[in-house]
Design brief:
The chain has a 4-stranded mixed sheet, covered by helices on one side. Strand 3 and strand 4 form a beta hairpin. It is built from 9 helices and 4 strands. It has 2 domains: about 70 residues, Glutaredoxin; about 140 residues, Glutathione S-transferase Yfyf (Class Pi), Chain A, domain 2 (Up-down Bundle), CATH 1.20.1050. Helix 1 crosses helix 7, helix 6 runs parallel beside helix 8 and helix 7 crosses helix 9.
Amino acid sequence: MLTLYSYPPLFGVADNNGYGLKVFAFLKLAGVPFVHEHLFDASAAPRGQLPYVTEDGETIGDSDTIIAHLTRKHGVTIDAALWSEQRRTNLLVTRMLDDLYWVMSYSRWKDDRFYPQFRDAFMAQHPQLDAAGLDKARDYNAQRYYYQGIGRYTPDQAYARGLADLEVLAELVPTEGYVHGPAPTSIDAGLYGFIANIHFYPIQTPLKAFVSAHPNLVRHCEAIHSAVSG
């Protein structure tokens, strides 16, 4: 049986990390059966990163590599009708979501205005965690942000990057249907992974305010959420 290993749920979504939620949504939209296991510690994962999947004695990490592998192995067809221009758009959007990831993470772990609310919500849903452990994770993430670069920005500078990414997504996502037509494809799963972790996030960060002000992003997110939940 295919098993997806990813971070735990939070705020009503199946994974509080955009990459794991992206793979989760892809599997659901593609109709591939799987077992979902949640981890707090990624140290044993490939490259020390979640998500990863195991199947038939094989372990695959990295969300894009996972999706490509599953598409081949399980004959997934949700992207089969896309033409080359649409596939190029998918690659560009996927790379931009990598940028948005850092700003989203910054808003939870780095920004002093929002971290206490995030920490308390995480402990409320996962009581096996404590403030000391989450503060240690915060210190670890601060090092990641510094070496990646986002940690050297002021909050306003960091959010300006994320809001610029969201502005592009708001222009890409249609008011009806999905990015490439009436049926969702893998890029919709990718968008959901990140937008859901903003939209369903009850703490009023600048990213949350932007998404809430754009009905097309909210509609798209809630449509995918309905399709993959339950």
